[in-house]
Amino acid sequence: MARRKRKYKGLTFYQRKKKINMSVVKEVFSYFFIAVFAVFLAGILTYTFGMSTSVIGVSMEPTLSNGQTIYMNRFAYTLSNPKPGDVVVFLPKGNQNTHFYVKRVIAGPKDTVLIEDGICYVNGKKSEYVTEKIKEAGIAEVEFTLESGEFFCMGDNVNNSEDSRSANVGPVKIKDIVGKAWLHGESETDKIGFIK
């Protein structure tokens, strides 16, 4: 039997058409979507719960000390108002050119405030949040009523605090409150703790 000679036609580049594997495409897109969603969620959580600032001064001692880092919950007062006892972060009179103030809410809208003989009275009763005898009554030496959306805030170290008693600060409006101080970093040990 005679072998047939194959005629040499030169180089040929034979390529099979590849089919796109849809399951691989779906998997790649799902990973991409998860990555984008994770970055978006991290950004939202950081903006809402992770914004931080430092305490300036000794006005919140012994609760918070000078230079201590605190984290704010910016979402806390979207649906509800600050309550007496909350530690809030605000810009006094909305002044963007000053540092954040960190103080405790003593009274809220429609409450009456009076500081007499070194004692802070809210609605005629001694405030449970001010235990130290107050040397300077400031604007609260005459009883007044907070308007809607206003809060009376003081430092825990009342005799070393510029707060709502001062005409420079006055009652804090809800629009000037940046958020609730909810976590703090211990300056010496770097431990995180909740603010009470």
Quick recap:
With 196 residues, the chain is α+β, with helices and mostly antiparallel strands. Helices cover 14% and strands 27% of the residues.
Which secondary structure elements does this structure contain, and how are they paired or packed?
Layout (H helix, E strand, L loop, with lengths): L21 H28 L1 E4 L14 E5 L13 E4 L10 E7 L4 E5 L2 E4 L2 E2 L17 E2 L4 E5 L17 E2 L3 E9 L6 E3 L2
Antiparallel strand pairs: 1-2, 2-11, 3-4, 3-11, 4-9, 5-6, 5-8, 6-7, 9-10, 11-12
**What structural category characterises the helix and strand content?**
alpha+beta
Distance between the termini: 101 Å
User: Looking at the structure, what is the overall shape?
Assistant: elongated
Mean pLDDT: 83
| Architecture per CATH nomenclature, i.e. the level-2 architecture | Ribbon
Name the helicity range: 10-25%
**Residue ranges: pLDDT <50 for 5 or more in a row?**
none
Describe it.
This protein has 196 residues and is an alpha+beta fold. It has a single domain (53-194), classed as Umud Fragment, subunit A (Ribbon). Helices cover 14% and strands 27% of the residues. It is built from 1 helix and 12 strands, in the order H-E-E-E-E-E-E-E-E-E-E-E-E. The strands form 2 sheets. Strands 1, 2, 3, 4, 9, 10, 11 and 12 form an 8-stranded antiparallel sheet that branches. A 4-stranded antiparallel sheet has the order 7-6-5-8, with no helix packed on it. Strand 5 (112-116) and strand 6 (119-122) form a beta hairpin. It is elongated and about 95 Å long.
